[in-house]
Design goal:
heterodimer; A: alpha/beta; two-stranded antiparallel sheet; elongated; B: five-stranded antiparallel β-sheet; 15 helices; 18 strands; about 40% helix; binds iron/sulfur cluster
């Protein structure tokens, strides 16, 4: 794993920087916010990595030859499954970032309920007009929300809700240094 | 031949929102649909959980404004316990809530929107992010990062964690403020105020360059809704709901939060997981209203702190009556940041703030409780019912961004009408559509495109599925 993390891609060779992507699936964005809590260390990181995809930057397509992808959130819809597969196919190291990605966490709390009852609460019981289940050009919810590793292979798990900024920094900088980080040193579930 | 244009924030790989524009027979745009594509089910899966779990659980609806959900859920739980929380707990919760408004507004202004102001709406998309900002104006990037950090650090000092603290609880807060932490908070505030004043001065000087945006960005009459205190001042934690019209006249005032269902209805549209709240007395969709920083400044009589009040007086000069252009959400955010810092300074100067009596204890005394507060993006409502054991049986959440749903759809339509011409999609359209949405700083439970630029692809599609035109922004 260490080798693949540091092995140069043509694009990385061009800039000398590691190509990093981030993505949000079924999460609250808190894991991305924790990444932003790196504060001025963000500017230092900008010299070492190239953000090639994700809500933090403006690139429209998941690119080829991504070195590391940090995934926030669980897998909750048909579209999430497709996104995961695409990421896996184009990424060397996939990191499950935060409890939602690692275990399903809060989003998976809907699993014991019938999907119809979950929809009905929001769009029938708690609505006054046009009661209906929205479907037009919208993703289809899976019956059961799943952690990322049930859909694709995950290389590194970083628990926490969210993982603290220091833990994210540790994982990313270890990878940049060509080492395989052990996130259990700096995180705990639910923290 | 009616056609549709679909704007998809990418090729399937990202995005919890997309846009469809419907064309009429004459090639004009007849309708805009802003699809929110994430649905999570909190209102259902809270069922069976003890009420004491609600604040920490509901905070997980949003990682950008978790404190708003934490505080609002705690207020709903106070109502279930039927307790009055200690005065110091009330003040501490206010400080926490305002610290979050500071950090969230800083994120919206500096990290997300300032690249548009500094680099221009049509600049290279690869540079239009916080890293690009750092290259062209490192001072401003550092200011933004620092201001957000100060807000986050106050949250951490009070709640033990920057994101998802679980410090506010039913009946108050679970730990008093120590003298040491108090001193740390006080020490950061002057720097925060300096940054905020420097930024608002810069923004006011730069605003002339954006007169076209100000004139055309979701600039239409609507109602405005938000909280004010008993004196009509800006309020973020408690108080009463006030509604003003586009002339700035009060339509309804002094409505207690618990009565929200009398004035707010929620409609469903088949194309979005986000519901469409409307002002009930005017019906749907005529009862369109806006919430958030612009609405709060439009409805309040004064801020109640000195520097913010000077700024408010200037802000109100922009337009007679209410300030209507959604472009001015940005300006309003900066004024609220100043207010937040000044208000926290005032709270910190109150000797009572170090009192150790910060929690009232009781068992559940009521079966139904409602909490209302102002989140960064607008008024937020949590409503729970419990059984005799204190287990939740039902929940309803009316989320800040949701209130602006009708207005966001209308704003997109307004821009699309200017930038779609027959079968052709004009270049400027992508940035404009995105920028209009960004004015509202939408926090769609995922907020994918609230952060950074929204990667967009627009397709003009005929009924048979044939792609007539295509345009995309990015690499
Ligand atoms: S792990 Fe926690 S912080 Fe991260 S997305 Fe899930 S709920 Fe939000």
């Amino acid at each position: 794993m260490t080798e693949t993390a540091t092995q140069e891609t043509p694009a990385a060779a061009a800039t000398g920087k590691a190509r990093v992507a981030t993505i949000w699936l079924e999460g609250c964005s808190g894991c991305h916010m924790s990444f932003l809590d790196l504060d001025e260390r963000l500017l230092d990181l900008a010299g070492m990595i190239e953000m090639v995809y994700g809500p933090l930057v403006d690139i429209k397509q998941y690119p080829d030859a991504v070195d590391v992808c940090l995934i926030e959130g669980a897998v909750a819809t048909d579209e999430d499954v497709l996104k995961c597969r695409k990421i896996r196919a184009h990424t060397k190291l996939v990191i499950a970032l935060g409890d939602c990605a690692v275990t399903g966490n809060v989003p998976s709390m809907r699993n014991p309920f019938e999907l119809a009852a979950v929809y009905d609460r929001a769009y029938v019981e708690n609505a006054q007009l046009n009661k209906q289940r929205p479907t037009l050009k919208l993703p289809v919810l899976l019956d059961r929300v799943r952690p990322v590793h049930e859909v694709i292979k995950v290389d590194i798990f970083v628990p926490g809700c969210p993982p603290p900024a220091d833990a994210i920094y540790f994982v990313v900088t270890e990878l940049l240094a060509g080492r395989t980080p052990d996130p259990s040193l700096v995180t705990r579930f639910g923290k | 031949m009616p056609r549709e244009i679909v704007i998809d924030p990418v090729t399937r790989i990202e995005g919890h929102a997309r846009i469809t524009l419907k064309m009429d027979d004459n090639g004009g745009v007849s309708d805009a649909m802003f699809h929110v594509t994430q649905f999570r089910g909190f209102e259902k899966f809270c069922e069976g959980r003890p009420l004491t779990e609600m604040p920490a659980l509901m905070a997980r609806t949003c990682g950008i404004c978790p404190v708003s959900h934490l505080v609002t859920a705690s207020k709903a739980c106070d109502a279930l316990l039927a307790v009055e929380i200690p005065p110091t707990a009330d003040k501490l919760r206010r400080v926490l809530n305002l610290a979050q408004i500071i950090q969230s507004h800083a994120l919206s202004f500096f990290h997300l929107s300032s690249p548009d102001f500094l680099l221009g709406m049509d600049s290279d998309p690869a540079k239009r992010n916080v890293f690009g900002l750092a290259e062209v104006n490192p001072g401003m990037a550092r200011d933004g990062i620092r201001l957000r950090q100060i807000g986050q650090t106050i949250i951490e000092l009070l709640g033990g964690k920057k994101i998802h603290p679980s410090w506010t609880v039913p009946g108050g807060v679970n730990e008093p403020l120590s003298a040491e932490k108090h001193a740390k908070i006080v020490a950061m505030l002057p720097e925060a105020l300096d940054i905020a004043r420097r930024t608002i001065n810069w923004f006011k000087r730069s605003m002339d360059g954006f007169s076209e945006e100000a004139a055309s960005f979701a600039n239409f009459p609507t109602l405005f809704m938000g909280l004010v205190d008993a004196k009509g001042s800006l309020e973020h934690y408690d108080g009463f709901i006030r509604i003003c019209d586009s002339r700035g006249l009060v339509v309804q005032d002094m409505i207690p939060g618990e009565k929200y269902a009398d004035i707010i209805g929620e409609a469903v549209e088949s194309f979005s997981f986000m519901k469409f709240p409307y002002y009930k007395p005017m019906g749907y969709p005529q009862g369109i209203y806006r919430v958030g920083p612009l609405a709060r400044l439009n409805i309040c009589d004064q801020c109640g702190t000195p520097v913010a009040d000077q700024e408010l007086a200037e802000f109100k000069q922009l337009q007679r009556g209410a300030v209507l252009s959604s472009f001015h959400y940005h300006y309003a955010r900066l004024i609220e940041i100043i207010y937040g810092i000044e208000y926290i300074q005032r709270m910190m100067a109150d000797p009572d703030i170090l009192s150790t009596h910060v929690r009232s204890r009781a068992r559940p005394n009521r079966r139904e409780g409602i909490g209302v507060a102002e989140a960064p993006r607008g008024i937020l409502i949590h409503h729970y019912k419990i059984d005799e054991n204190g287990l939740v049986t039902w929940g309803n959440l009316v989320i800040a961004t949701g209130h602006n749903n009708l207005a966001m759809n209308r704003g997109v339509l307004q821009v699309a009408r200017r930038f779609v011409d027959g079968n052709k999609l004009q270049e400027g359209m992508l940035n404009r559509v995105e920028a209009v949405i960004r004015c509202y700083d939408p926090c769609l439970s995922c907020a994918t495109h609230a952060l950074g630029q929204m990667p967009l692809r627009i397709e003009l599609v005929s009924p048979s599925g044939e792609v007539l035109d295509e345009i995309s922004r990015g690499a």
